Amino acid sequence: MAKKYHGPGRTAKLPLVRALLATNLLFAVAVLVAWQSTLMVLLGPLGWAADEPVPSSRGWENLFQYPLLVFWAGPALAMAFGWMMIQARNYKAAFGALALPLIMMIIIVVLYWAVPPSA
């Protein structure tokens, strides 16, 4: 009996996992390349959540300071772990690893704009 390598379970879950992988890549690259532009939209709320100001001065060394490092290294580590789980054919773990940074960022941005500023 021949073994099926491309069954319906594999092909049904792989596009969603690949889309999450691409979204994490897009976010990490956006923070690395255009972090001055993303400062107002995304890094303001994420700096508020970290309770640490995001450095606004120009310079590549700021990419390795605490709040900014988390916002590009988190999706990068999620991409690495998700890729390893895809190679191991563990799609539930890959989905969870790739969805976690995005869900966290969505919740933080919504809370930042929904909660009134403290007096």
What does this structure look like?
The chain is mainly α. The protein has one domain. It is built from 4 helices and no strands. The longest helix is centred in the first third of the chain and has 26 residues. The chain is globular and about 45 Å long.
Write the layout of secondary structure elements.
Elements: H1 8-33, H2 35-50, H3 66-87, H4 91-114
Helix pairs in contact: 1-2, 1-3, 1-4, 2-4, 3-4
Quick gist of this model?
With 119 residues, this protein is mostly helical. Helix content is 74%, strand content 0%.
Offer a few descriptive terms.
74% helix; mainly alpha; 4 helices; 119 residues
Rg over CA atoms: 17 Å
Residue ranges: pLDDT <50 for 5 or more in a row?
none
Q: What sort of overall outline do the alpha carbons produce when their principal axes are compared?
A: globular
Total number of beta strands: 0
The run of helices and strands is HHHH
Q: DSSP helix count?
A: 4
Structural class: mainly alpha
Mean pLDDT: 79
Alpha-carbon distance between the two ends:
71 Å
Domains (count): 1
Instruction: Describe the sheet with the most strands.
Output: none
- Give the proportion of residues in helices: over 70%
Beta strand %:
under 5%
